[in-house]
């Protein structure tokens, strides 16, 4: 039987698909599945029946059905195949069967036998496509290959504001001079420590005139200069560490690194994780000895749960750093490996790598990275349920950060110790170290949004929603000027969920309406409220928007939350947006980390995920 739909024709006997007379290559099982869907287009076919008819006696998982359905939707559009939750799939496109025209013998001359359009078009071999693709890629590579004479003339100078870089040892600042690559503007009215502590308030004031702001610190240890830098842009931060025999060489290395155009693309627009990875991989291939770019690639792979790739790159970082005798990045590589192994819940191996990292950082007196390492050690101690060890690790991290003059790391260690004390039912300690953190915030005269972490922790300690509510409201008061700070976003989400649970929908609506920023977090709140009001169209639209925004921003947990809501949604009516259930199921299966699965265990079980 031959079928026509859209501009396609399919022969279910020969399993040949054509489009406008040209053969379309599809896999054998995809063709068998398409034949089954077309032959029984008036039925909803279960996954079990599809497996039985298409794969017959072969042992495969339901994943095979999802993948082949997705491939067919990519060819024919999402509306071609409809998913009926917990029932199966059904073909939806208007389709016409085509009858073959019989040949006649009235003409004595031998007529050319009539065949299907698909048969008339010879199937192109895969090797031909491979050769053509290789030629195209080679042509692009040749055309894109940089020409050395254009290096200095074609690229305009990068406009960058900077806060003079302080040196802790000799109390001097490093100034940056303009050159053919950079047009620097010194922000002499700002100090590095103040800007770092107030960036959530100060950068929005600067970004219209100075979208790229560079800041950092230098120190000297055993005649070697170490430079920590941070470049802030509208859509993120770029940071790294440089070591050199002198300040002059350190600045030269910094400028050489910051000449790379991809950094500013990275900071100037939101990029989904896949694009970030692709751009970082290209940048690494173009400058394989640039350890800062390689380190960022490792972090990106880790954040997206691609731990095997992350570990391969971390091994590469360790090998290159050791070949360069770069102790700083050797220590960083071991710390990355430890974090990856911790995410994979291989805690014993993680501890071994962490010990190696600490050894490297001690060699160069890197107190900040030592603080990070001991902070990481506290989580390994937590796996052993050893609270005294947790406390010792975090107090050591806080002391190292204090000695380094790093207020943020010091406060993180103290507030995290408060949380760990709460987890281990140490009532005295959880209040003691939270109070210590608050006192230090006052002593350091930090902006008010830092203080929002204090009531945020009190809300964690409270057991009843009614007891949490006043603390969460205080968080929002303290963060009124920084509504997109993570503490404010988390508190707002908890309040909205509490209001919905108590059927206080008007208060939930007012809280949502108070936010002007169009981002994934605020879209998620609108999704929850539409769900509570049983507004199916608004719920699906907002959930899909949340997923898109979160995925673009690289917010994996939030994109998973939105995907889970969509998977659990009832089948939408004709007037509502369609839900591609398979896509979201597949996304969860491919991307959900263990901690998220544990937190959503019951919901996943209900959906057989």
TrEMBL record:
PROSITE patterns: OMPR_PHOB (PS51755). One of its GO terms (molecular function) is DNA binding. GO terms for biological process: phosphorelay signal transduction system; regulation of DNA-templated transcription. Keywords: DNA-binding, Membrane, Transmembrane, Transmembrane helix. Residues 96-116 are annotated as: Disordered. Residues 97-107 have a biased composition (Polar residues). It holds the Pfam family Trans_reg_C. The chain crosses the membrane at residues 126-145. The keyword Magnesium does not apply. Residues 1-93 bind DNA. Residues 1-93 form the OmpR/PhoB-type domain. This is Winged helix-turn-helix domain-containing protein. It comes from Thalassomonas viridans.
């Amino acid at each position: 039987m031959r079928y026509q739909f859209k501009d396609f024709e399919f022969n279910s006997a020969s399993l040949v698909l054509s489009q406008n007379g040209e053969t379309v290559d599809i896999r054998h099982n995809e063709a068998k599945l398409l034949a089954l869907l077309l032959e029984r287009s008036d039925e909803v076919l279960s996954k079990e029946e599809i497996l039985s008819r298409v794969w017959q006696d072969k042992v495969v998982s339901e994943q095979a059905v999802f993948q082949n359905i997705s491939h067919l939707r990519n060819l024919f559009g999402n509306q071609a195949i409809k998913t009926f939750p917990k029932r199966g799939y059904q073909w939806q496109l208007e389709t016409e069967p085509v009858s073959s025209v019989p040949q006649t013998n009235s003409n004595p001359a031998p007529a050319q036998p009539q065949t299907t359009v698909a048969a008339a078009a010879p199937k192109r071999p895969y090797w031909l496509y491979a050769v053509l693709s290789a030629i195209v890629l080679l042509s692009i590579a040749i055309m894109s290959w940089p020409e050395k004479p254009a290096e200095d003339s074609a690229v305009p100078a990068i406009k960058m504001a900077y806060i003079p870089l302080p040196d802790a040892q000799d109390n001097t600042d490093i100034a940056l001079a303009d050159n053919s690559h950079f047009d620097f503007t010194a922000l002499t009215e700002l100090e590095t420590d103040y800007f770092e502590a107030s960036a959530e308030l100060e950068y929005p004031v600067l970004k219209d005139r100075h979208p790229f702001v560079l800041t950092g610190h230098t120190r000297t240890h055993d005649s070697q200069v170490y430079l920590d830098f941070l470049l802030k842009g509208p859509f993120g931060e770029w940071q790294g560490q440089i070591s050199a025999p002198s300040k002059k060489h350190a600045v030269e290395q910094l400028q050489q690194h910051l000449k790379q155009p991809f950094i500013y693309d990275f900071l100037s627009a939101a990029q989904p994780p896949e694009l970030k990875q692709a751009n970082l991989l290209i940048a690494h291939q173009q400058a394989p000895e640039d350890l800062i770019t390689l380190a960022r690639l490792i972090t990106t792979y880790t954040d997206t749960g691609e731990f095997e790739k992350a570990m391969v790159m971390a091994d590469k970082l360790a090998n290159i750093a050791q070949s360069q005798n770069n102790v700083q990045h050797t220590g960083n590589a071991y710390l990355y490996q430890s974090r990856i192994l911790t995410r994979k819940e291989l805690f014993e191996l993680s501890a071994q790598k962490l010990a190696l990292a600490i050894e490297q950082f001690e060699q160069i007196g890197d107190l900040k990275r030592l603080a990070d390492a001991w902070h990481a050690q506290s989580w390994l101690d937590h796996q052993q349920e050893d609270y005294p060890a947790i406390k010792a690790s975090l107090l050591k991290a806080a002391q190292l950060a204090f000695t380094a003059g790093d207020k943020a790391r010091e406060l993180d260690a103290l507030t995290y110790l408060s949380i760990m004390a709460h987890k281990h039912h140490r009532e005295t300690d959880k209040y003691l170290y939270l109070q210590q953190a608050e006192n230090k915030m006052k002593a350091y005269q930090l902006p008010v949004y830092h203080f929002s972490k204090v009531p945020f922790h009190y809300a964690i300690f409270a057991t009843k929603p009614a007891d949490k509510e006043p603390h969460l409201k205080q968080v929002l008061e303290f963060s009124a000027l920084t509504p997109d700070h993570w503490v404010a976003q988390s508190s707002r989400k908890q309040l909205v969920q509490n209001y919905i649970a108590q059927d206080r929908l008007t208060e939930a609506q007012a809280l949502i309406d108070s936010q002007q920023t169009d981002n994934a977090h605020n879209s998620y709140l609108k999704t929850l409220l539409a769900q509570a009001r049983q507004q199916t169209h608004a719920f699906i639209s907002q959930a899909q928007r949340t997923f898109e925004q979160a995925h673009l921003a690289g917010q994996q947990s939030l994109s998973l939350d939105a995907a889970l809501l969509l998977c659990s949604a009832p089948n939408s009516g004709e007037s509502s947006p369609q839900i591609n259930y398979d896509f979201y199921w597949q996304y969860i299966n491919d991307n959900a980390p263990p901690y998220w699965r544990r937190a959503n265990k019951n919901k996943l079980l209900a959906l057989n995920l």
